[in-house]
């Protein structure tokens, strides 16, 4: 789980081009949108693309996406729940 | 005193008809143009509904009298078919006889044809007739092909403000007439379906896999369409001089920007409200004078909520009849403003209000519902036509009955 | 059209050192292809990091030029934002076309699609300065910038705006450079800007740039007196139109103190300039500009920027810009003091 979260942070930084951000700057539970990292609705679409390209998980409904993309923690939990044990 | 601007000719092609009369017939019969693509090479062909013009590109070339002419894209041919009808409708046999403007609109120009040969163009080892499509990549190509075919050359321009493009083309042409730069401007837009735009809107997750449901609680996005429409605008003095038949008056317009987000409107519909309010003020009409609003109504979550709020703010408890005709034509992007401006003219001319198809449940954020029935013999004198788009671009037009 | 349209301020990003400091024209040395690339400033001074991270090249360039122009004009929020661009964000259009192919139409990032929309720079400018008024984008090759200017002039004439921000931007990508080379738009052999007028070969040197202007009815040192566009004209019609255009402004060719011409050394089209100068301006100083910025759809915006620079430094009463784009779109812009 920790390894997955670190990898996710690196992938988020790369996908969203968060140039001055390092993985350790992102708190596992900090909100990605609004305050937190200050991401917006286009970023949320990009993060869904990230999930699809890297983890082969397709999120169809933007409303569902919003729940999954609350924080790195919720993203990691969602990815784990979709992967075979 | 600036001159009044009259609409003296209309021409169009869409998924529900290859001329104005066919469009009117389909609206009356409540026949949608939505279905699945025959012509686009895409993995979404059976899943994402579109409103495609049924004619193939060679068939369109034949309709436009351009058979065997090289380099005409589907976008240019759709436009030419609509342009020819608009001139004919205005009783203009020779468009070159008078210095005129052609103000066109497009969002992706000849992409429909370019995307099919793009990687061949990039491949130095390939040569062939596809090279004639190199210059069709931009939006000006279709405009010039159409202008050249009918001989309009005093002013030639192309506007691209996403989904409000052709409403802005109409405004620009009308303003040129009021400035006295020209006495006649043919304005509108043309748009062909492309793999590019289908994937673009799909990547934004705002295409509905069902037929679109504007202003419905369960709406889930738009469906793309294609088509072209042009309106012949003429100054009052030219109309008198040549005894032209007036179809309606373009009495007001306004362009605003949301300055809110690259792809989303403000939740309270500030831009939509400002555009409608100012267009109405310019027309010298008040809110009570409006009988019908042809809304932008794309059926995306954001648009309809925001546009609905704007209607409630402008009209209070007396919102006039309103409907989105996008379930008939799909969202034709740069052509939408002109297609719907023609529907506004028809609404006045036929005293008719067109139904908003696929509606079943009121949106929870709103107190209003669209008109779902075809209303005939309805006294329509003033129509607001809305077009809103990416980049926060909003445009509203007021089209009024000609009363001498 | 009635009224005078005064230029309150300008800004340009170009292959020259035009963005800050004193401008001195420089002839670049091209290394490998006939393309003059812009010198990009540090965008971080103009755009917030959170916005900057997603923007592609021409968006940053256009937005920054627009913001700088407003600063140079002392205008916080204009009453209208109008731009012209021939090609918009080529990088985004290309990226989305490649993504569609590479990922077989699945899992596509929407950003290049959004940014490929021609009005995206306009939207960003409006968003950054919170301008909710008139906003328009023209996309018509060698008329894109000119229609943006005409629209701005009409708004001022209608009394609907006090300050209008009008400008243009175009970039050249490697891919589109290659595409245009397939139809002979550029010179085949590597040609330096200093040799371009004497090479005697077909094709131009490619270029790119962004230039913005604030126009208003409030008097300033330079104004746009007139603008005339000509679509696919014959040589005779260019000449007749010039005569009528000058006459309309009460001028003779000899009243023009400086002619800024779009000569590019392209033997296919330079005859328009040669014939015009020979007949009307044999004694008038002529300054070409495409050796400085290259050829692109909205190169006339750099010419206007250059004209304002010259008029601020020299005693010139009337300056005329004549430009044409691959023979199709011809433009006269008349400037006065």
Tell me what the structure shows.
Chain C: This is 3-oxoacyl-ACP synthase. Chain C: Pfam families: Ketoacyl-synt_2. Chain C: Residues 44-177 form the Beta-ketoacyl synthase-like N-terminal domain. The complex is a heterotrimer of chains A (85), B (404) and C (337). With 85 residues, chain A is mainly α. Chain A has a single domain, classed as Orthogonal Bundle (Non-ribosomal Peptide Synthetase Peptidyl Carrier Protein, Chain A). Chain A has four helices and no strands. Chain A has helices spanning 2-15, 41-55, 62-68, 72-82. The relative contact order of chain A is 0.19. Chain B has a ten-stranded mixed sheet, sandwiched between helices. Chain B has a two-stranded parallel sheet with strand order 2-6. Chain B has a two-stranded antiparallel ribbon with strand order 11-12. Chain B is of the alpha/beta class and 404 residues long. The two termini of chain B are 17 Å apart. The mean pLDDT of chain B is 96. Chain B is globular. Chain B folds into two domains: 5-242, Thiolase/Chalcone synthase (Peroxisomal Thiolase, Chain A, domain 1); 254-400, Peroxisomal Thiolase, Chain A, domain 1 (3-Layer(aba) Sandwich). Chain C is α/β, with parallel strands linked by helices and 337 residues long. Chain C folds into two domains: 5-216, Thiolase/Chalcone synthase (Peroxisomal Thiolase, Chain A, domain 1, 3-Layer(aba) Sandwich), CATH 3.40.47.10; 223-336, Peroxisomal Thiolase, Chain A, domain 1, CATH 3.40.47.10. Chain C has eleven helices and ten strands. Chain C has helices spanning 49-52, 57-73, 90-102, 111-116, 120-129, 144-157, 174-181, 235-248, 271-280, 290-293, 299-313; strands at 5-13, 80-84, 134-138, 163-170, 209-216, 223-231, 258-261, 286-288, 318-325, 329-336. The radius of gyration of chain C is 19 Å and the shape is globular. Chain C starts with a strand and ends with a strand. Classes of the chains: A mainly alpha (85), B alpha/beta (404), C alpha/beta (337). Chains in contact: A-B, A-C, B-C. At the A-B interface, helix 2 of A face loops of B.
């Amino acid at each position: 789980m920790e390894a997955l979260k670190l990898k996710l942070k690196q992938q988020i930084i790369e996908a969203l081009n968060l140039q001055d951000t390092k993985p350790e700057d992102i708190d596992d539970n900090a909100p990605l949108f609004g305050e937190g990292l200050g991401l917006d609705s286009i970023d949320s679409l990009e993060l869904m693309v990230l999930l699809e390209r890297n983890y082969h998980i397709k999120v169809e409904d933007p409303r569902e996406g919003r729940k999954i993309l609350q924080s790195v923690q919720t993203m990691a939990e969602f990815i784990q729940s979709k992967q075979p044990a | 005193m600036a001159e009044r601007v009259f609409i003296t000719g209309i021409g169009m092609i869409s998924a529900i008809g290859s001329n104005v009369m066919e469009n009117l017939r389909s609206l009356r019969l409540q026949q949608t143009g939505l279905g699945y693509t025959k012509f686009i090479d895409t993995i979404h062909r059976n899943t994402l509904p579109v409103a495609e013009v049924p004619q193939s590109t060679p068939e369109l070339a034949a309709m436009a009298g351009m058979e065997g002419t090289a380099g005409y894209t589907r976008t240019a041919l759709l436009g030419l078919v609509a342009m020819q009808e608009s001139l004919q409708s205005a009783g203009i046999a020779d468009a070159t006889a008078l210095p005129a403007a052609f103000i066109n609109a497009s969002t992706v120009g000849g992409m429909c044809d370019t995307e099919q040969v793009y990687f061949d163009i990039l491949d130095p080892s390939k040569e062939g007739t596809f090279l004639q499509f190199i210059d069709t990549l931009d939006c000006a190509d279709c405009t010039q092909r159409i202008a050249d075919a009918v001989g309009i050359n005093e002013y030639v321009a192309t506007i691209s403000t996403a989904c409000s493009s052709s409403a802005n083309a109409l405004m620009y042409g009308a303003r040129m007439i009021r400035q006295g730069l020209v006495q006649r401007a043919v304005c509108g837009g043309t748009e062909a379906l492309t793999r590019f735009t289908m994937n673009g809107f799909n990547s934004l997750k705002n295409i509905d896999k069902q037929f679109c449901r504007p202003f419905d609680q369960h709406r889930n996005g738009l469906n793309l369409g294609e088509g072209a429409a042009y309106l012949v605008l003429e100054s009052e003095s030219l109309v008198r001089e040549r005894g032209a038949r007036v179809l309606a008056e373009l009495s007001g317009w306004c362009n605003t920007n949301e300055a809110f987000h690259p792809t989303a409107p403000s939740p309270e519909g500030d831009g939509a409200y400002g555009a409608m309010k100012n267009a109405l003020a310019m027309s010298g009409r008040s809110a009570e004078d409006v009988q019908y609003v042809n809304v932008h109504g794309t059926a995306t979550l954001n648009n309809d909520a925001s546009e609905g709020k704007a209607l409630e703010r402008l009209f209070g408890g007396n919102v006039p009849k309103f409907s989105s005709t996008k379930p008939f034509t799909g969202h034709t992007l740069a052509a939408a403003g002109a297609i719907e401006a023609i529907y506004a003219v028809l609404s006045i001319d036929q005293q008719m209000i067109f139904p908003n198809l696929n509606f079943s449940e009121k949106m929870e954020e709103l107190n209003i519902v669209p008109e779902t029935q075809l209303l005939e013999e309805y006294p329509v004198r003033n129509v607001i036509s809305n077009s809103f788009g990416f980049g926060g671009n909003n445009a509203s037009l007021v089209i009024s009955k000609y009363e001498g | 059209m009635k009224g005078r349209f005064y230029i309150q301020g300008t800004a340009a990003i170009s292959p020259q050192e035009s963005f800050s400091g004193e401008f001195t024209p420089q002839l670049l040395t091209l290394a490998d292809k006939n393309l003059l690339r812009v010198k990009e400033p540090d965008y971080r001074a103009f755009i917030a990091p959170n916005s900057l991270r997603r923007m592609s090249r021409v968006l940053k360039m256009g937005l920054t030029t627009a913001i700088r122009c407003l600063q140079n004009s002392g205008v916080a929020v204009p009453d209208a934002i109008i731009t012209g661009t021939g090609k918009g964000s080529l990088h985004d259009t290309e990226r989305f076309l490649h993504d569609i192919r590479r990922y077989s139409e699945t899992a596509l990032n929407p950003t290049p699609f959004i940014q490929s929309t021609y009005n995206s720079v306009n939207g960003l400018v409006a968003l950054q300065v919170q301008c909710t008024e008139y906003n328009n984008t023209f996309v018509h090759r060698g008329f894109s910038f000119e229609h943006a200017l005409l629209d701005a002039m009409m708004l001022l004439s209608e009394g609907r705006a006090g300050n209008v921000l009008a400008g243009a931007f175009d970039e050249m990508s490697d891919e589109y450079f290659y595409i245009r080379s397939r139809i002979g738009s550029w010179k085949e052999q590597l040609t330096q800007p200093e040799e371009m007028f004497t090479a005697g070969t077909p094709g131009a040197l490619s270029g790119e740039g962004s230039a913005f202007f604030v126009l208003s009815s409030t008097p300033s040192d330079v104004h746009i007196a007139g603008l005339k566009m000509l679509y696919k004209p014959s040589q005779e019609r260019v000449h007749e139109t010039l005569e009528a255009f000058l006459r309309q402004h009460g001028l003779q060719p000899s009243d023009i103190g400086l002619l800024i011409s779009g000569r590019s050394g392209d033997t296919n089209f330079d005859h328009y300039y040669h014939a015009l100068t020979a007949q009307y301006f044999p004694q008038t100083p002529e300054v070409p500009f495409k050796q400085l910025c290259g050829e692109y759809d909205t190169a006339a915006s750099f010419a206007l920027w250059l004209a304002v620079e010259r008029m601020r430094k020299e005693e010139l009463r009337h300056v005329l810009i004549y430009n044409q784009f691959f023979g199709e779109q011809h433009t006269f812009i008349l400037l006065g003091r």
